[in-house]
Amino acid sequence: MVGVTTDWRPDEFLDGYEVRTIPLATDPDGEDPIFASLVRRPLDGITPRGAVLYVHGFTDYFFQTELADFFHERGYAFYALDLRKCGRSLKAHHQPHYTSDLAFYDEELNASLDIVTDEVSAAGGTPQVIVAGHSTGGLVTPLWLNRLRTGDPERHGHVVGLLLNSPWLDLQGEAVLRSTPASKLISAVGSVRGMQSLPRELSSAYGDSLHADVHGEWTYDLVRKPLSGFPVTFGWLSAVRAGHRQVHAGLDVGVPALVLRSDKSSFRGKYDASVDTADCVLDVKQIAQWSGCIGGRVLAVAVTDARHDVFLSIESVRKRAYAEVDAWMESEFDK
């Protein structure tokens, strides 16, 4: 990895937050220059008992300050990583969120983990980290920890837990999309025309349910998180499907894991009230089916009426989700 900058600066998207750039090595997918962005909530004088490292999903970036506040109030330093070509790390010459291999993200994940543990130690805290991942981030992070456990056990030793929020563990939709011929087609096209978009439009129902300018209560940057999502490319989907196959074969993240999801899915072509109390992006039955494949100690919880991002659900629902996280943390880390 080409060196890491040491300058924290005010974040342009969130008041009171800071961001630093993590330069990355040459892009295997040919879209140089690339970099990642690490965001932090200042400690405000607390001595951290640990830290959280959060990783976003597809068509997403970190803006969920309520989540950061939740952990800060419990004495944890909070950091969030915008991966290469995502959110704060997205530039005009990038295909948004593109990678041809999810393992390429290990570079910025490792660098971020090192920064977090070094800073927590410097603040007099305990360098133990809970990794949190949402949606595609909930696929990327267990794959990373599985590799880290065997390939870099010293670095892995700083991770004490994994919190997954509606992880993307299989391909939703018709069964034919998950068939061997379909997977081979995606892989074949992805290998030669990786940045070609699939001929399928994404619904704006989820984005409409979230954003304050439409039907929701959240404000975020629509350039970095458009209501209808970014185009899905063959190369990126091929990388995701390879990750799915690894999950289905069985992983061992090496730490206790909590998996949160909604109790139901509701797929809609356009917004209606049902998507406010359901996952309208992923099939929650698939999340339930595969959650046990990520490790040997997994607690899976269905949160009634949750949205796809459980922590962006309506207020009463996300309070229940936070209560589940509280109970899990008390059980695993407050003994």
From TrEMBL:
Cross-referenced Pfam families: Hydrolase_4
Gene3D superfamilies the UniProt entry points to: alpha/beta hydrolase
InterPro entries the UniProt entry points to: AB_hydrolase_fold, Hydrolase_4, MAG_DAG_Lipase
Domain Serine aminopeptidase S33: start-end pairs: 48-185
Coiled coil: none
PANTHER family with a match to the protein in the record: PHOSPHOLIPASE-RELATED
Record's protein name: Serine aminopeptidase S33 domain-containing protein
Organism: Gordonia malaquae NBRC 108250
